[in-house]
Write a structure and sequence with these properties.
With about 90 residues, the chain is mostly helical. About 90% of the residues lie in helices and about 0% in strands. The N and C termini lie far apart (about 110 Å). This is ABC transmembrane type-1 domain-containing protein.
Length: about 90
């Protein structure tokens, strides 16, 4: 069965519609994937920054506690053991 001119136009329109739909679907999928990757990357960066900030705060807090403990130990040593080691007491 031979196709006449009208049938050729209908087939052409159907092919164009199918191609347009496929292109739109591909573009939408690509955009969704790109947005998802960007969102995940931003979340990872935020998590890393938060973890680093928390770690820095913890290290600073531990450092402050260590310094305070050392100062207390030195003061206690000076007060109660200075008579035992007068040279160390003078140095401190």
């Amino acid at each position: 069965m031979a196709l006449n001119e009208q049938d050729n136009e209908v087939v052409g329109v159907v092919v164009v519609v199918i191609v347009v739909v496929v292109v739109v679907v591909v573009v939408v999928v690509v955009v969704v994937v790109v947005v998802a990757v960007v969102v995940i990357a931003v979340e990872v960066v935020v998590v890393v920054v938060v973890v680093v900030v928390v770690e820095v705060v913890v290290v600073v807090e531990v450092g402050v506690v260590v310094v305070v403990v050392l100062v207390v130990v030195v003061e206690v040593f000076k007060r109660y053991f200075g008579w035992f080691c007068p040279d160390v007491h003078k140095a401190l």
